[in-house]
Amino acid sequence: DAKTTQPNSMESNEEEPVHLPCNHSTISGTDYIHWYRQLPSQGPEYVIHGLTSNVNNRMASLAIAEDRKSSTLILHRATLRDAAVYYCILRSHGGSQGNLIFGKGTKLSVKP
Amino acid sequence: DTAVSQTPKYLVTQMGNDKSIKCEQNLGHDTMYWYKQDSKKFLKIMFSYNNKELIINETVPNRFSPKSPDKAHLNLHINSLELGDSAVYFCASRGLAGGGTQYFGPGTRLLVL
Q1: Residue of chain B whose Cα is closest to the Cα of A95
Q2: CA distance B17 to A112
Q3: Does B66 touch chain A (CB under 8 A)?
Q4: What's the CA gap between A111 and B9, in Å, rounded?
Q5: B31 within 8 A of A96, measured Cβ to Cβ
Q6: Which of B39, B52, B104, B109 should be substituted to probe chain A, the one whose Cβ sees the most A Cβ atoms within 10 Å?
Q7: Distance (Å, whole) CA B23 – CA A112
Q8: Each residue's pLDDT tens digit, A32-86
Q9: Partners of A4 in beta bridges
């Protein structure tokens, strides 16, 4: 699986939008972009994923660059509960086991 | 309803002991995983398993062995525990739908003394 690059940490104020960037310049055509997050003392949880088009769900939006070499996870109104480590992961849907290769992620702090 | 559950939540044991961690998923998924998260918070896959194929991360010592009594369970057995085995262990499962989304359990915090 191709590697991703994320900032180590980011800060946000409560109720403001948050844009979490991810660079994946070596992405291949079969790689989907997945985002997971890990709240303190919990297991990772799925946030969103996409291939080429921007995606929206109840948790977040995913904006994918036209060349697919970068993407941005958007939390529209950060809450204190959104403080977590956010992982951007490339996963080839052609892989036999769908393994997720976690990097260091971005630790998001949300200030009240 | 808990989709992926693990027991125990905490496990404290002595070096050299043998222990097991249990994982159950009620999602009807075919593929299950074990991950290890060390003190530096790096999350690494240990095993992936479906009812036909076990794939082992080559860096995992053979003291670790997954055992699956049925499709809904993937237990992790650890022989001759070492201090370096102290970590949080996460179980996860994946179905065929939903773009391969994985669902993680709450984790088992293992401390080897």
Answers
A1: B100
A2: 46
A3: no
A4: 30
A5: no
A6: B104
A7: 37
A8: 999 999 999 999 999 999 999 999 999 999 999 999 999 999 999 999 999 999 9
A9: none
